[in-house]
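Handoff note, outgoing to incoming analyst
You'll be picking up this chain. Sequence as last confirmed:
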Amino acid sequence: MKRIIAIVVLAMLTVITPLYAASAAKNLAYVDKNGQSYISVGVLKTYDGVKVAYTAAEKKLHITREDTALTLYLGSRNAYVNGKKVQSKAIPFSENGSTYVPLQFVSQHLGLKLSWGHNRSTLKITDGNAAHTLPVLSGTFISSQTKPVTSTRKTFKVGSRSFSAQVVTVSLLHPKVELDVVLAGNKAGKVEDLRSIAKRSKAVVAINGTFFDAYTSGAYKAPYGYLVSKGNILHKASGDNRTIFAYDSNSLAAMIPGLDFKSVYDAGHMEGALQAGPRLLTDGKVTLDVKKEGFKDPKILTGGGARSALGITKDHKLIMLTTGGATIPQLAEIMRQAGAYQAMNLDGGASSGLYYNGSYLTTPGRQISNAIVVKYK
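Most recent structure output, in case you need it:
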C-alpha cells in the first residue's frame, strides 16, 4: 500500500501542469540590479498561441508557440531552443507567487517586439497588431508584507511662502493595491460626503475628483469631465482638452490630454479615468497651459485657495496631496518638490478633501460629486 502511495505522489510531482501566477500579482517587467530584464510567465500566456507548462520535480519551464519550443530551468542558465542547448544570459526565478523568465531570450524566440519607455519605467510589447504597455519594476521586489500606503504632513516653500500639505503616497505596483473611481450615490449628478464614499467603497484612501456644478439649485449637479470605472464609462465629457488621469488593470497610471480620450479608451486597456486639470507637471517640469485646456475661471487662472492634486513618480507611486491658499503655479511647484514626475490639479475650494485610514486628513467643505479611491485586494 505504501508503495502505491509513493508512486502516486511521485506522479503528482512530475506531471507537467500549467503554471499560474498568484492572483494578487500584477503583470510587470522586472529589471534587476545588474540590468538584466525579465517578464512573468503570466504576461507571456496572454499572447496568442503561447503555452506555458511547469514540471515541478525538475523545476523545468516549457514554453511553446507554433513551431518554437523553449525549455528553461529555474535557477539555471541552461536552456533549450527546439531541443538545442543554449546558455541564457539571465536566470529564471520565482518571486511573490510569479515566475519570471529572461525577457530578451523569450521575446526573441517568440517574436515579441520590445520598446522601452522614457526612463525605462515602462515597456511596450508588440505582438503582430496587438500592443500592451507594462510597468517596469527595478531593483527590489515589493513584498506583499510591506506597507502599500504612507501618510505624512509636509511643509513646502515656494518663493517667500510656506505651504503645509497633507501627502498620501501609494505604491501602485504593490500586489494589494487597487484603484477605483467612484460616483457619489453611484450615479452621475448625485453628491455625497467624501467619508461616506470612502467607507461605502471600503477604501483606505479617497480624494475628491472632477469639477462639478456645485452651485446649482437643482437636484442634478452635473460632473464636468470623463469618468471611467472598471473599464466602463460612467460619464462622458463634452470633448474638451482638460487633463485626464487614467490607469489600467495593473495600476499603470498616466496623464493624457482630454482630446486623446477616445483613442486611448478604444485601445481597450483603460481600467479607470477621471478628468480634471490643468496639467501641472510633465516629466518633472512645470508645464502649465490653462487656456489651452479651456479654463476661463479666475479661481483657476489667478486665484489662490484650497487645492487637491494627483502626482505620479518615476517609480510608479501615486501622490495624493491637499494644501490651502495656493495658486495653480504654486501648486505645480509643490507637486514637483513632493517628488511627482507627472502631476495634475483636481477640483478644489470647498471640494478639496483627503481621507485616509478611517478619518479626514483634509475635511471638505461640501459634499462632492466623485472621488478617486485606493482599496486593498
